[in-house]
Specification:
The complex is a heterodimer. By secondary structure, chain A is of the alpha/beta class. Chain A is built from 23 helices and 8 strands. In chain A, α12 links the parallel β5 and β6. Chain A is flat, with a radius of gyration of 26 Å. Chain B has 11 helices and 8 strands. Chain B is elongated, with a radius of gyration of 21 Å. The chains are: A alpha/beta, B alpha/beta.
């Protein structure tokens, strides 16, 4: 049951005793709801939103489907999960099919006379500038829009310079900063440039500000009045705590936001702020930042965030992502060989190659439930992009004979392999040790048959929990 | 406005909610389970976390259950309890002159306020009459180097920098060498923001530490983890992982001038026993102040 280490574990404790009784009592539901409450609070969902959520679940949980269910624990988890996805998704799904953007599924509203503008707002350090560049890249690349970016952040040192650099990195034009120009002035100049030079979209990156800073909130309201944006996006860190409701409410009341962008979803925060903000503003979460790379911007995925809030991991997303990149036949072949005890270093190299196709191992790891508990093991086996490349290089530096008969690899061969792969003898040793462990594990799996299903056997056992 | 007023003004907003809530709760009524549950919730809303909030409300229950209690008494009792937890954490970063340069490594997740904190702290060291050098170790984020250079100018100290995309470890190596050669008192090394679950980025940070230690095996003398007060329970993961990987010696809590009160620091202090070197309460160079347990606790509970 390593797959569901969050809410399910909590609930299964409560419901375990029920199997014999076979019926749910009111008191059982009450204690289940209390566990759900704690799980949500630990995930940083704001308390008022937790209460609203619990009320919604209570209605459905006392219904007959739970009482009659053989596994009331799982049934309640499902209800909670579905309810959560419902609350997170809301209108976002409707927006995604909006007619004005048949090519884009990000749900950004770009309907209007060109240039339309997108206003980026949020607290300091929430990731506005990076997100601005990511959106610009997405709109200019994928959607073939002519995009202009402008930095209105005249406060933080080198903020304008940051956007200029990001413009070079993304190939998107950035309005040249003029020393001493005020934010409203910059907004005017950006819109004017946009009109004169035929841009489709103008992205306005504003300075980070506190929602209670009257002066700066008035400033951004003035910017809004000048630019008349079709989208005003509140950029929020997925790590945000209970204050998320205040932040979202204030920004929405004072400026009027049209959507939320959740950043740092690739971290290990549970991301309850997403639910809080969605709930108090009624605004859809449109996009999420999933990495430091400027391509790492995805359409908001309610299921993934719901899983993370409940501490369940996104198993579905994981399997889908794996299926996208892993050659199923190849994986099946490998698995069969492994089960027969025929696992060689060549097979391991093939596995690593498959694994490397997943562009962001770290990101993938984050989706595997229970992984947080294995952080230490993970760092020992070097499961990250670089580590895998090194491991592959080591195996490729061996002779064919060595790969089939690792016993041959003595001290001097190890030295040669290390030199050939640009690694160290220690790393070669570590790989050989890991290979040995994997072979043993493979054999065991062959007998027990257990863990093979998850990824069609393509997942190296070194990454399997419970090793 | 003094920093104290600003902190109070900021704290006041969430405190209002918190203390109004408590006032509603205890209109001279008996302390019963329902009341305690609600009290616990109010503490949770200050980001204290379920475990800490539950511990605090239970401590109150132990002494006062079934007694009449006024809202003021509840607040005072809780503030006292919180101050006691936080007291050991109220330690500023003391520069030990035996180490020259005294090397401070600054780390944290993206957007927590590392560079700004370095600028403010450098100014304080300068005001104490020390020579300070800054190393622009955030070689990843666009214009992070320029940002630190501006702070260097403001605080009046040299900034060691190379081009963006360079190797942070070798930059740090060079900075330590230069600081030694130039007889600098304090060297502060900025690093790129990194999420604690990114193994390769954490490895990179550990490499910076190793490289520094190669030149002075007592260094880095302080490893400062910068935490945004807006962050919720993930702060626990941040401290845990950074501490394990690079032996964090103390925290700085930033952005306390908002409505987020950083109640999470109560749980952090209990769990990790790390000092809070300073708190950030604004964007200007003087907006960094020592962490005072009693002030923090009182303001949190709405006591003047």
């Amino acid at each position: 049951m390593w797959m569901f280490d969050g809410l399910s574990d909590r609930l299964s404790g409560i419901f375990d005793g029920l199997k014999k009784r076979g019926a749910l009592k009111e008191a059982d539901v009450v204690s289940a709801l209390r566990e759900i409450r704690v799980a949500l609070l630990e995930a940083d969902v704001a308390l008022p939103v937790v209460k609203e959520f619990i009320d919604g679940v209570r209605e459905r949980a006392v219904g007959e489907e739970v009482i009659r269910s053989v596994t009331p624990g799982q049934m309640v988890v499902k209800i909670v999960h579905d309810h959560l996805i419902g609350m997170l998704g809301g209108d976002a799904s409707k927006d995604q099919s909006a007619p004005q953007l048949p090519m884009d599924d990000s749900g950004l509203n770009l309907a209007g006379v060109s240039p339309v503008s997108i206003l980026m707002v949020g607290l300091q350090g929430s990731g506005k500038t990076t997100t601005t560049a990511k959106i610009a890249k997405r709109l200019s690349g994928r959607d073939k829009k002519k995009v202009l970016m402008a930095s209105l952040d005249v406060y933080r040192p080198a903020a304008q310079q940051q956007l200029v650099v990001l413009g070079q990195q993304t190939g998107v034009t950035v309005l040249s900063p003029i020393m001493g120009e005020k934010p409203v002035g910059i907004a005017k100049r950006a819109m004017q440039t946009g009109r004169q030079e035929g841009y489709d979209v103008v992205l306005l990156d504003t300075a980070g500000r506190l929602h209670i800073d009257f002066e700066l909130m008035s400033e951004v309201a003035a910017i809004r009045d000048v630019a008349k944006p079709t989208e005003t996006l509140l950029v929020t860190d997925a790590m945000t705590g209970q204050d998320s409701v205040n932040i979202a409410r204030e920004f929405n009341e004072k400026i009027g936001i049209t959507g939320i962008v959740l950043t740092r979803v690739d971290g290990d925060a549970r991301g309850g702020a997403a639910l809080s903000m969605r709930s108090v503003t009624g605004c859809p979460i449109k996009l999420m930042g999933t990495g430091e790379n400027l391509d790492a911007l995805d359409v908001f995925d309610a299921a993934r965030v719901a899983g993370s809030i409940l501490g369940m991991g996104d198993v579905v997303g994981l399997v889908e992502k794996a299926r996208d990149v892993i050659d199923e036949q190849e994986a099946e072949k490998l698995a069969k060989r492994a089960m027969k005890g025929l696992f060689t270093l060549e097979d391991m190299a093939a596995q690593l190659k498959q694994l490397r196709k997943i562009d962001d191992i770290g990101g993938l790891m984050g989706m595997i439930p229970g992984m947080s508990k294995m952080k230490k093991q993970m760092s020992q086996v070097n499961v990250d992009d670089k580590g895998i490349a090194h491991q592959e290089a080591i195996i490729l530096s061996m002779t064919q004979k060595e790969r089939r008969l690792p016993k041959l690899i003595n001290g001097s061969r190890r030295k040669r392999i290390a030199a050939g792969s640009g690694t160290s003898v220690q790393e070669v040793n570590r790989l050989l040790k890991q290979f040995k462990q994997m072979s043993v594990m493979m054999k065991k799996m062959g007998k027990g048959g257990g863990l093979k299903g998850l990824m069609g056997g393509g997942m190296p056992p070194g990454m399997m929990p419970g090793r | 406005m003094s920093w104290f007023d600003r902190l109070k003004a900021g704290l006041g907003r969430s405190t209002e909610r918190l203390s109004n809530g408590i006032t509603d709760l205890f209109h001279n009524r008996k302390l019963d389970q329902d009341t305690l549950d609600e009290l616990e919730e109010l503490l949770i809303m200050a980001d204290m976390g379920v475990a800490t909030a539950s511990r605090l409300s239970k401590a109150l229950a132990k002494n006062r259950f079934d007694q009449d209690i006024t809202p003021q008494e509840v607040r005072a009792a809780l503030a006292g309890e919180i101050a006691t937890i936080l007291e050991p954490a109220a330690k500023s970063l003391e520069i030990n002159p035996a180490h020259k340069p005294y090397i401070v490594l600054v780390c944290g997740v993206n957007g927590s306020g590392k560079t700004t904190t370095i600028g403010k702290m450098a100014k304080q060291f300068r005001d104490q009459g020390r020579s300070v050098m800054l190393a622009a170790g955030d070689t990843f984020r666009a214009a992070a180097i320029e940002q630190l250079q501006v702070w260097g100018e403001r605080a009046g100290c040299t900034v060691v920098a190379r081009e963006q995309g360079g190797d942070a470890a070798s930059l740090s190596f060079e900075a330590v060498q230069r600081a030694k050669a130039e007889n600098i008192d304090v060297l502060m090394i900025d690093t790129a923001g990194r999420l604690q679950n990114k193994a390769n980025l954490m490895e990179e940070l550990m490499k910076v530490v190793r490289v520094i230690a190669k030149q002075d095996d007592t260094a880095p003398h302080a490893v400062m983890l910068v935490i945004d007060a807006t962050v919720g329970q993930n702060a626990h993961n941040q401290v845990e992982v950074f501490k394990r990987m690079v032996s964090v010696t103390g925290l700085v809590l930033t952005k306390l001038d908002g409505t987020a009160k950083g109640g999470v620091v109560v749980g952090l202090a209990e769990k990790f026993q790390l000092p809070v070197y300073a708190v950030g309460v604004g964007e200007t160079i003087d907006d960094l102040h020592p962490f005072d347990a009693k002030t923090f606790a009182n303001n949190l509970m709405g006591i003047d």
